[in-house]
């Protein structure tokens, strides 16, 4: 009975984590759309730097209050992670600027097979035929409902290539660092968010000026635009945290596959709030295929052999048992969220 209860509790927490990520991710997209389209704050990289500054303030406050235990992460690992994350953010922004929306969507979809390749090569993960087929269905469905015009040039292709690989490596490293150093999501954010905030706030204004020919310091700040900036930063804390929690509990590939549910939800909300001009039979069909693929993926990957790594030899090594105990303890705060 206790095993059943434990499994039920885990399933409940898993669902809550996904809902937390979906709500915050969709919420920040809607707020940022209003901020950029309605109020003209087009400084995406600088805004992301503000997001990580807010996240840094949150983790520092929780650590000061004693809610986040002390932990260690080598600075070389922090720099490696921040390098991937910064290239991901800059690459995605530049890719969207230099490529058509259709090619940008294709680049985002290609992150799933790239992340799969990283798990196969670095973690020796094995996928069953059904799991592979479900991933193909998700890619097909999201592609059908989002990819329209497709045009690309040499510099746009290079930007997309950098964005895809850096984003995939960043998400892979979230799971890798949590497992290797027994870090919870709050701990990992506490180590990485300050460096990301500083790097993006230094580079962001120059990059945004290069992309938009506008200076962030010359923007006409109003009480309404400041409200949306603060609201975006507040929601971003939950978005950053929920991303780390989800990847830590599952994997980068699962996060990518089920994460496309957010794309479908954003489309649906767009039709609800902004009219049905873009709603067509093709879009509806793509949504249906993607949702079926996600359901198929959840079922296939949870079966024995659906997605697994070779079992390590059985050992009574006490340091490994201590590592597992510390990892369980570091996840307690994530579970409470």
UniProtKB/TrEMBL annotation:
Extract the InterPro entries matched here: Sugar_P_trans_dom, TPT_transporter
The topology of this chain with respect to the membrane is: Multi-pass membrane protein
Q: Which residues cross the membrane?
A: 12-31, 43-66, 78-96, 133-150, 156-174, 186-206, 226-245, 257-275, 281-300
PANTHER family, alphabetized: SOLUTE CARRIER FAMILY 35
Positions of the UniProt region annotated as Disordered: 302-337
**What name does the UniProt record give this protein?**
Sugar phosphate transporter domain-containing protein
Q: Does the keyword Transmembrane helix apply?
A: yes
Q: What taxonomic classification does the UniProt entry list for its organism?
A: Eukaryota, Viridiplantae, Streptophyta, Embryophyta, Tracheophyta
UniProt keyword Chaperone present: no
Q: Where in the cell is it found?
A: Membrane
